[in-house]
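A favour, since you know our structure tokens better than I do. It will help me judge whether the discrete encoding reads sensibly. The space below this message is yours for that.
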Amino acid sequence: MKTAPVYAAIFFGVLCMSTSSTMIRWCSAPALVIALYRLAATTGLSAVINGRNLPLSISGLSRRDIILMASSGLFLALHLAFWISSLDYTSISSSVLFTNLQVIFVLVFSTFILKERLNRWAILGVVLALTGSGVIVGGDLGQGRLLGDMLALASGFFVAVYFLLGRQLRSRVATLDYTLVVSSVAAVIVLFVAVFMQLPLTGYPAVDWLLFALMGLGPGLGGHAVLNWALKFVKAPVVAVSILGESVMASILGWFIFNEALLWYQLTGGAVILMGIYLAAVNESK
């Protein structure tokens, strides 16, 4: 397949993902409820698009692939729960930056678990990303935002595992089948936790329900599903680097809509993090 349409799709996917934090800020529902209905919307839309092919597609999946997708769904649920919660305690820019450290987690996992070697440029990228993170943590500590940063960092860890599992599956499982199964498993997990915590599942204003649907359509299908589709045509580091655009776009939206101006340490640390992730990702496979 020609690369131009793939890169255009990646840009569109990153743009869709960048709108997620803004929509979450607009919602009045608790973090777990937002995660639940976003996942439910993604699942429902995937099922509608699959249509008549759905029973045949699902029945053709191997038991091993279903187990891997269920595991992927668990980590997707953890990622969304922690990341959405982080937006209650820190800025949009810090939250997205710490979540995008998932690239660094993937490299660390590859080194210690898969026994893959990193070259000196990738190692330098990891060091830079960690240094930039330290700058932001130091500044946010004085602003009372440390909890939000740590929640976002944990969400980056969980989404790294989610992407690692996805890399193994995307070569043999169709995008919509993968999205449907993973999102449905994640939705069920979040539902059980929300019920256990006795969170209200109804009674939210109409704008919240609209935002739930838009999050499933935009960041869910237009973002995650499109990027998972792109992994079939380009190398994973290309997609990983492209996701860095989410940090920039989300920060711009946060400043424009919520007047969240970036402080000096966020600009400095963010620039160092982005540089580090870029170096690490582009040198991952060399």
Notes: Residues 3-114+145-261 form one domain. The mean pLDDT is 83.
